[in-house]
Amino acid sequence: MNVLDKLEYGLFVLSAHENQKDNACITNVAMQVTDNPIRIAFTVNKNNLTHDMIFNTGKFTLSILTTDVPMELIQHFGFKSGREVEKFENYPYAQKNQQGDQSGSGGSGKQEMSADYKAGWNQAMEDYKNGKLKL
């Protein structure tokens, strides 16, 4: 079983990295196109900064959100423009990878969620449920 087996209708965080800047937005359309080679398709508004970054670099990360994701996370990445705010600034669960990008962003599309990122995400969800995290 691979991550594409879990890809179904839902919400996703689509992130990208360009020129030392990270950005992300919310999208609700992503699907597997082929399995050999692995290809996916997703939608992003062409007016979004994330669109421009992906268009310019050809790199992105798509994170599948769970059904119990806090609305505050959707608001954080979906209701603000990356042209006006730094979406990852002071975001406690974003980690830089070895290339200096936010965890996974700027990847080849073949990366799986790192153990550190997954642990951070799990901790973020626990902190939110316990009232320790305000997004």
Write up what this structure looks like:
The chain is α+β, with helices and mostly antiparallel strands. It has one domain: Electron Transport, Fmn-binding Protein, Chain A (Pnp Oxidase, Chain A, Roll). The chain contains 3 helices and 5 strands. It has helices at about 50-55, 70-80, 115-130; strands spanning about 10-20, 20-25, 30-35, 40, 60-65. Strands 2-1-5 form a 3-stranded antiparallel β-sheet.
Keywords, separated by commas or semicolons:
3-stranded antiparallel β-sheet, Pnp Oxidase, Chain A, two-stranded antiparallel sheet, 3 helices, 5 strands, 135 residues, single chain, 21% strand, alpha+beta
Secondary structure blueprint with pairings:
Layout: E1 12-18, E2 21-27, E3 30-35, E4 38-42, H1 49-57, E5 61-64, H2 71-78, H3 115-129
Antiparallel strand pairs: 1-2, 1-5, 3-4
Total number of helical segments?
3
Rounded average pLDDT:
74
- How is the main sheet built? 3 strands, antiparallel
Structural class: alpha+beta
Q: Tell me the total number of β-strands.
A: 5
Q: If you compute it from the alpha carbons, what radius of gyration comes out, rounded to the nearest whole angstrom? A: 14 Å
The percent range for strand residues is 15-25%
SSE string, helices as H and strands as E = EEEEHEHH
Spatial arrangement of strands, main beta sheet: 2-1-5
Low-confidence stretches: 103-114
